[in-house]
Design goal:
About 60% of the residues lie in helices and about 15% in strands.
Length: about 290
C-alpha cells in the first residue's frame, strides 16, 4: 500500500526550537512595538507637558500683567481721587483768597475814606481855627496847596456897590496882573475871568474834568449862608497833580461853604478889636 502524504506537517510535528524561535521573534517584535509606542507616548507627554508649562507661564505672565494693570488702574483711580480732592481744596483756597482780596479791598477803601474824612476834618478845623483875616486866607491857601495840589490861585471877593469881583489875595501868581471882573462883563478872551464870573453868578463850581491842560483848573464860589460873596480861582496845579478826584471835589464844597463865612467873621472880629459882644446883645440876638 502507498501512504498518502498530507499538505504539510502539523505544527506539533515541528521542532521545538523552531517554535521557540518564532515565539521569541514575536515577543521581541511585540516588545519593540510596545516600547516604541511607549517612547512615542512619552515624547507626546513631554511635548504636551512642555506646551502646558509654556501655557501656564503665559497665563502667569498674563495674570501678572493683569495684576499690574489692576494695580495701575487702582493707582490711577487713587490719583484721580487725589486730583479731585486737590481741585476741591484749590477751589476752597481760591474762594478764601477771593474773600480775603475783597476784605483787603474793602479795608483799603475804608482806610481811604477815613483819610478823606480826616482831611476834611483838618480842613474844617483850620478854616475856623483863627479870627484873623490874614490867617484865614493863609489857611485856605495851604489847604488847597497841600490837600488838592494847587500851585497858583487867587481869592476874589465881591464889591457889591461896584458889582465887581476883585482879587484880595494871590499865591503863585502876580496879583497886580489879575483882572477886576465886572459882573456880566467879564474880559473877553480871559477864560479864568469868565469861569470865575460864571461860578459867582450861578453858585456852581467850575471844576476841570480829566487831565487839567489850561487855566483855570477850578473856580469855587464862596458862600455866606445862601449868598455868594466871592470866588476862589485855582489857575494851575502841581506837576504831579494831573486832575481832580472825588475827595478834591468834597474839599472844594467844604472850602466854598466855610471860607466865605470865616473871612467875614474874621473881618468883623478885627473891626471890634477882639472885643466880645455884651451879654445883653447876645441875649437880644438869641431872642
Amino acid at each position: 500500500m502507498i501512504e498518502k502524504k498530507g499538505r504539510g506537517s502539523r505544527r506539533s510535528d515541528r521542532p521545538v526550537q523552531v517554535v521557540a524561535a518564532e515565539l521569541k521573534g514575536k515577543r521581541d517584535a511585540f516588545l519593540q512595538t510596545f516600547f516604541k509606542r511607549g517612547a512615542e507616548l512619552t515624547d507626546e507627554l513631554v511635548s504636551e507637558n512642555r506646551r502646558l508649562r509654556d501655557q501656564i507661564a503665559s497665563l502667569e505672565a498674563e495674570n501678572a500683567a493683569l495684576k499690574t494693570q489692576l494695580a495701575s488702574d487702582e493707582a490711577i483711580r487713587d490719583l484721580l481721587r487725589k486730583i479731585e480732592q486737590l481741585e476741591r481744596e484749590k477751589a476752597r483756597l481760591l474762594s478764601t483768597v477771593h474773600k480775603q482780596e475783597e476784605i483787603s479791598h474793602r479795608v483799603t477803601e475804608i482806610e481811604a475814606e477815613l483819610e478823606n474824612f480826616a482831611n476834611l476834618y483838618v480842613a474844617s478845623f483850620q478854616l475856623h481855627s483863627s479870627l484873623r483875616v490874614r490867617a484865614v486866607v493863609r489857611n485856605v491857601r495851604e489847604l488847597l496847596e497841600q490837600l488838592v495840589g494847587a500851585r497858583s490861585l487867587a481869592i476874589y471877593f465881591i464889591d457889591e456897590a461896584a458889582r465887581l469881583l476883585s482879587p484880595i489875595s494871590a499865591y503863585g501868581v502876580d496879583m497886580a496882573a489879575l483882572p477886576v471882573i465886572p459882573l456880566h462883563e467879564a474880559p473877553a478872551g480871559d477864560a479864568a475871568a469868565v469861569a470865575a464870573e460864571k461860578a459867582y453868578l450861578t453858585g456852581i463850581p467850575h471844576i476841570a474834568e480829566g487831565e487839567v491842560m489850561a487855566a483855570p483848573a477850578a473856580c469855587i464860589p464862596l458862600l455866606l449862608e445862601d449868598r455868594v460873596v466871592g470866588v476862589v480861582t485855582i489857575y494851575t496845579l502841581l506837576a504831579q497833580k494831573k486832575g481832580f478826584v472825588t475827595v478834591d471835589r468834597e474839599l472844594f464844597k467844604l472850602v466854598g461853604a466855610h471860607a466865605g463865612g470865616a473871612l467875614v467873621a474874621a473881618h468883623l472880629w478885627g473891626q471890634t478889636d477882639g472885643r466880645l459882644p455884651s451879654v445883653d446883645a447876645l441875649r437880644e440876638a438869641c431872642a
